[in-house]
C-alpha cells in the first residue's frame, strides 16, 4: 500500500507571516502565491504494521520538530480516514532544504497528497490544502497549480487555499540563489518571535488585508505591474516586521539588497521585474516569461556569484504512482 506524490514549491507574492493559531496553523493574514515548475519534492507513503511512524528525508531519518510536523499531517489523515496504522514516509527534495526556497511547501503538499491516497481517504483539493497546512502553512498553496490564494480563515474548516485564474502575460520567476545554507532561525521560530515581540506586527497584519484584496483584483485583471509592485511591498513589509522583533530577525543579506536595487534599475530600463524574498537571503524576481533572459543577464552582471534558475508557473500536487 504505497502511494507516491510530487509537488512543487510556491513563492508568495502576498506573504504569510505570523500565526493566529500555532497548533492548527491558522495564519494571521491571507496570502497569494505562484507555484513553480522547478525543484519538485517526491514523497512516498506506505501504510505499515510498525509500532511508530518512520520518516526519511533525502536518505536520512528525520527526528525532532520536523518529524513532529510530518506526524501531525499523518495524524490528520488517520483521523479523517478512521484508520490507525502507522506509515513509512520517504521524501526526496531537489532543492536545498530550509534555505528559504520553499522546500517545506513542496514537501508537505506532496506528503498530504500521498498520505491521503495511501490511507484510502478520498479528499478533494480543498481538503488536501487543509491537511497540508498542518505541516507547513505555505504548503496549503502548493496543492494548486499557478496562482493560488490562501484564505486565512478562522478555524480548520475555513483556512484553505484555492486557485485563481491568471490571464495576464505568461509569468516567470527568476530565482537568484545567493546561499544554499540552512537558515539559522526557522520560519516557525521567527514568526513566533515577530508575533510576540515586534511592535510592527499589528501594522503588518492590518496592511496585509488591504494588500491581498488589491492583489487579488490585479490578478483577476491580469495586471502584472500592480501585482508586481504589491509583491515588493508585501515582501519588504514582512521583513520590516521581523526587523522589529527582539532579538531582530534579518534574513536579507547585502547580496539580497543589491539584487532588490538591481531589479529597481531594470524597471527604469523598461523591464517588468519585481523582487521578493522569504525566510532566507535568496531573491526571487517575478517577471514576464519573454523578459526572463534579460532579467538573468541584468542580475548576473551585478551579482555574478549567484546561481540563477528560471522558473515558470508549475503544476499542483499530484499522485505519480497511487494505490488505486
Ligand atoms: O509555511 P512556512 O512555515 O514555511 O512559512 C512560510 C513563510 C514565507 O515563505 C516567508 C512566506 C510565505 O507566504 O510563503
Task: Walk me through this protein's architecture.
With 324 residues, this protein is of the alpha+beta class. It folds into two domains: 2-166, Ribosomal Protein S5, domain 2 (2-Layer Sandwich); 171-312, Alpha-Beta Plaits, CATH 3.30.70.890. It has nine helices and 16 strands. It has helices at 64-81, 103-118, 125-133, 139-142, 187-197, 201-220, 224-243, 254-268, 292-302; strands at 2-7, 10-14, 19-21, 26-27, 31-35, 41-48, 54-57, 60-61, 86-93, 147-151, 160-163, 171-177, 273-277, 283-288, 307-312, 318-321. The strands form four sheets. A six-stranded mixed beta sheet has the order 8-7-9-6-1-16, with helices on one face. Strands 2-5-10-11 form a four-stranded antiparallel beta sheet. A four-stranded antiparallel beta sheet has the order 13-14-12-15. Helix 2 packs across helix 3 (125-133), helix 6 packs antiparallel against helix 7 and helix 8 packs across helix 9 (292-302). The longest helix has 20 residues, at 201-220. The radius of gyration is 19 Å and the shape is globular. The model has no long low-confidence stretch (mean pLDDT 95). It binds (3R)-3-hydroxy-3-methyl-5-(phosphonooxy)pentanoic acid. (3R)-3-hydroxy-3-methyl-5-(phosphonooxy)pentanoic acid binds next to helix 5.
Amino acid at each position: 500500500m504505497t502511494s507516491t506524490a510530487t509537488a512543487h514549491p510556491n513563492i508568495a507574492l502576498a506573504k504569510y507571516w505570523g500565526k493566529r493559531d500555532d497548533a492548527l496553523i491558522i495564519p494571521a493574514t491571507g496570502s497569494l502565491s505562484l507555484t513553480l515548475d522547478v525543484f519538485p519534492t517526491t514523497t512516498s507513503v506506505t501504510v505499515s504494521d510498525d509500532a511508530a511512524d518512520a520518516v526519511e528525508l533525502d536518505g536520512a531519518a528525520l527526528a525532532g520538530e520536523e518529524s513532529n510536523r510530518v506526524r501531525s499531517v499523518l495524524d490528520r489523515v488517520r483521523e479523517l480516514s478512521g484508520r490507525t496504522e502507522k506509515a513509512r514516509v520517504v521524501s526526496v527534495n531537489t532543492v536545498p532544504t530550509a534555505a528559504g526556497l520553499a522546500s517545506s511547501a513542496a514537501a508537505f503538499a506532496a506528503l498530504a497528497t500521498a498520505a491521503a491516497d495511501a490511507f484510502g481517504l478520498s479528499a478533494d483539493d480543498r481538503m488536501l490544502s487543509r491537511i497540508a497546512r498542518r505541516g507547513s502553512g505555505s504548503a496549503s498553496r502548493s496543492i494548486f497549480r499557478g496562482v493560488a490564494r490562501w484564505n486565512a480563515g478562522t478555524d480548520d474548516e475555513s483556512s484553505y487555499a484555492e486557485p485563481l485564474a491568471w490571464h495576464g502575460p505568461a509569468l516567470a520567476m527568476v530565482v537568484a540563489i545567493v546561499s544554499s545554507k540552512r537558515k539559522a532561525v526557522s520560519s516557525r521560530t521567527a514568526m513566533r518571535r515577530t508575533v510576540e515581540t515586534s511592535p510592527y506586527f499589528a501594522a503588518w497584519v492590518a496592511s496585509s488585508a488591504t494588500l491581498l484584496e488589491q492583489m487579488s483584483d490585479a490578478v483577476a485583471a491580469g495586471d502584472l505591474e500592480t501585482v508586481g509592485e504589491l509583491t515588493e511591498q508585501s515582501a519588504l513589509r514582512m521583513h520590516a516586521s521581523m526587523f522589529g522583533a527582539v532579538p531582530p530577525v534579518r534574513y536579507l543579506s547585502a547580496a539580497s539588497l543589491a539584487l532588490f536595487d538591481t531589479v529597481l534599475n531594470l524597471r527604469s530600463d523598461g523591464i517588468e521585474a519585481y523582487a521578493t524574498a522569504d525566510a532566507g537571503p535568496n531573491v526571487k524576481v517575478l517577471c514576464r516569461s519573454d523578459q526572463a533572459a534579460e532579467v538573468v543577464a541584468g542580475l548576473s552582471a551585478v551579482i555574478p556569484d549567484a546561481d540563477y534558475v528560471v522558473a515558470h508557473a508549475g503544476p499542483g500536487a499530484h499522485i505519480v504512482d497511487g494505490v488505486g
